[in-house]
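User: Design a sequence. Structure:
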């Protein structure tokens, strides 16, 4: 089993002072990585902010995750290599097929069927790898074309792929260094359906499918999950109650939901995450920035930081 490590997902800060305070707090808490999403919501530019974070801290940096439909993979490859060079190899590229309807609506882009988006992502990963070789390359696919393009050579870029459906899990097993379990697009779109897809039973099923596809690579690939909501200690029950009211699942299922909720006492959460790692292999958790203070004691106990 991989050792535990934790990341924080942020959209930025209101001022330079607040940004610097956030970076200091994250690093001081024993967090290993800082992540940014790539949605159309108001947020910092990921490349600019992550480069700044790498210059000011020893944190790993990454996207969680880049919507493949929002940037040509050849340009994304150059951006990723630049971040890897400037951070001395501390950049993780998280990428997915895209899912948030608002991103497409606000940019006037068509939201193609899931199968087509996955096919486009598969080609994009091929383009990324070719560009990262640093050699001149051409590519003619169904979705992307490049002609005699010279890639930018740099440090190796670990590839994190967000995956929930069977086809995405298969792609992640073939191409990813880190697999982030996420919702399956075929599971439904209501809050209740999403909660069922994030349940412990569903996550164990995804982990089994992934292990089957990984084969001998299973020991090399790190398993990740983004925690949507965290409550530790006195705030735990309120978070459970809120989650139950929003999703319609039972309190027991809420507490056993790896992806969407962490809510209990510090010691119980330490035991729970160790048990989940044994059952699923998940060792890399990313917390949302507002939950960092609550979860800090859990992070410290599982990573051995004071």
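Assistant: Done.
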């Amino acid at each position: 089993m991989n050792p535990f490590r934790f990341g924080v997902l942020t959209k930025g800060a209101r001022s330079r002072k607040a940004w610097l305070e956030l970076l200091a707090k994250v690093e001081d808490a024993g967090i290993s990585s800082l992540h940014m999403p790539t949605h159309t919501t108001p947020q910092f530019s990921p490349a600019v902010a992550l480069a700044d974070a790498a210059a000011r801290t020893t944190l790993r940096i990454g996207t969680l995750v880049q919507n493949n439909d929002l940037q040509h993979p050849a340009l994304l490859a150059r951006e990723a290599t630049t971040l890897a060079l400037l951070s001395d190899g501390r950049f993780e590229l998280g990428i997915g097929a895209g899912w948030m309807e608002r991103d497409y609506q606000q940019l006037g882009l068509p939201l193609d069927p899931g199968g087509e988006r996955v096919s486009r992502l598969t080609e994009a990963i091929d383009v990324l790898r070719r560009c990262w070789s640093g050699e001149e390359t051409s590519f003619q696919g169904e979705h992307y074309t490049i002609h005699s393009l010279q890639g930018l050579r740099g440090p190796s870029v670990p590839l994190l792929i967000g995956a929930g459906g069977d086809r995405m899990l298969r792609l992640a097993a073939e191409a990813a260094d880190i697999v982030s379990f996420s919702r399956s697009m075929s599971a439904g779109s209501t809050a209740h359906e999403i909660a069922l897809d994030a349940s412990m039973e569903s996550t164990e099923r995804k982990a089994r499918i992934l292990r089957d596809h990984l084969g001998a690579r299973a020991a090399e690939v790190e398993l990740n999950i983004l925690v949507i909501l965290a409550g530790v200690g006195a705030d735990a029950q309120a978070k459970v109650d809120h989650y139950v009211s929003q999703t319609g699942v039972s309190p027991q299922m809420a507490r056993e939901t790896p992806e969407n909720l962490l809510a209990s006492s510090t010691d119980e959460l330490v035991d729970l995450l160790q048990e989940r790692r044994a059952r699923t292999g998940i060792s890399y958790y990313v917390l949302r920035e507002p939950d960092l203070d609550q979860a800090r004691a859990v992070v410290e106990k599982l990573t051995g930081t004071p």
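The domain at 5-303 is CATH 3.20.20.30 (TIM Barrel). The chain has a mean pLDDT of 95.
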